[in-house]
Amino acid sequence: MEAERSFAPILMEISISKDVLPSLEIYGFTETILGDRKGSTKQYRSSSDLHVREYHDKFVVHEDKVDPRIDPIGHLMKDSPETLIAFGAALLLSQNKRCFSSTQGKYSSFNPMVFVLSLLSLNKLLGILKKLL
Predict the structure, then answer these.
(1) pTM for the full model?
(2) 21 dihedral zone (left: phi>0; alpha: psi -120 to 50; beta)
(3) Per-residue model confidence as pLDDT tens for the chain (133 residues)
(4) N or C: where does the chain have the smaller number of CB atoms within 10 Å of the terminal CB?
(5) How many angstroms separate the CA atoms of 64 and 46, rounded?
């Protein structure tokens, strides 16, 4: 019996030319902002966990294990664990010695700019590593 993997497997994606499939409208896909755009112009989701990225000449389709519209935390755990790791690491990195915040006029131990930059950078880096493994 094969043991279940505790991390998300490498995604299988299928590219479909717009010459073959010019539109997704008749198939019940709804446009969404959830997900990594990866340079796409639009993203869509179906009721059966399909996630589609639309590019100018093609659609790229993959299946998520968990629909982020229904269970966002479950989606991060199963489909995008690198985002959770990046979030935790960015939270740790953004904690600094007490420094004065001129915008709030008080001392703060959290640096939101460091958090955002760390989260974005680490998420991108971990996403690349995930593809390589």
Answers:
(1) 0.69
(2) beta
(3) 444 444 545 558 899 999 999 988 788 898 988 888 888 999 999 988 899 999 999 999 999 999 888 999 999 999 889 999 999 999 888 886 555 555 655 666 778 888 899 999 998 899 888 878 7
(4) N
(5) 10
* Matching residue, tokens 């960015």: 90
* Tokens found for residue 30: 């709804």
Look at strands 42-45 and 30-31 and give their pairing: antiparallel
If DSSP codes are grouped into helix, strand and coil, which group holds residue 102? coil
Q: Can you tell me the distance from the alpha carbon of 50 to that of 13, in angstroms, rounded to the nearest whole number?
A: 10
Residue from 3, 8, 5, 4 nearest 81 by CA = 8
Q: What residues are paired with 101 via a beta bridge? A: 106
